[in-house]
Each structure stands twice: as structure tokens, then as C-alpha cells.
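Researcher: Good morning. I'm working through a list of sequences from a screen, and I'd like to move beyond sequence-only analysis. For each chain I'm collecting a predicted structure so we can compare shapes side by side. This is the next one on the list. No need for commentary yet; just the structure.
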Amino acid sequence: MKKLLWGLLALGFAEIALFIIIGKAIGVFYTLLLIVLTSVVGVFIAKQRGMKSYKDIQKSIQQGQPPGVAMIETFMIFIGGMLMAFPGFITDVIGLLFVLGITRNIFKPLIFYFLRKKMKTSNVIIVQR
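Model: Good morning. C-alpha cells for this chain:
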């Protein structure tokens, strides 16, 4: 828990430093406009992709398949959209990586590894396509 707190604190300081650097480079008004624009675009993308992922979950359930992969993708899109909605350029980049399908496929094996490691002692089965 302490690592998470320190990580969030470091992220906050990095975001502020980046705001200052970009503000000096392009101006305060354009920096604020860019922050608002990325937040709006992030929410829009997350909504569009999130609805598709939600439909994929329903489709998997209707076909009698476990919706594990679709649920993880939906979770990643939700987290990515939330990160893009927060003001900041670093969180926007991380959020975009979670929302885009190409980069999401890179993170999925890491998430499956993490889940398997955490659930090793229980009777939970994760099916990966």
C-alpha cells in the first residue's frame, strides 16, 4: 500500500513538472486546452470501446463461453478511460495504451500472469483464448 501511495505521489509531481514544461513551450492557454481536449477524447473513446467490450461479454455468455478475456478487456478499457479523463499527459499516455487494442494485447498476458499468481491457491480457472 505504501508503494502505491508513493507511486501516486511521484506521478502527481511528474504530471505537474510536465505541465510546467509544456506550458512554457506552447503557452498556458494551449496547455489547458490540450488537457481538456485529451480528457474529452479519452471519455469518448472509452465509451465507444467500452460498449463494444460490454457487448462482447454478453455475446460470450450467450454462447456459453466464459467471459474472462472479455471482462479483462472491459476492465482495461475502463481503467484506460478513467486515466485519460484525469488531467495529465502521463496518465493520458498510459490510458491510451490500455484503450487501444494493439497495446492492450501486450498487457493481457501480464494481467493473466498476475491473476494466476494471486489466485494460485483458490479454485478459480481462467481460460485464455
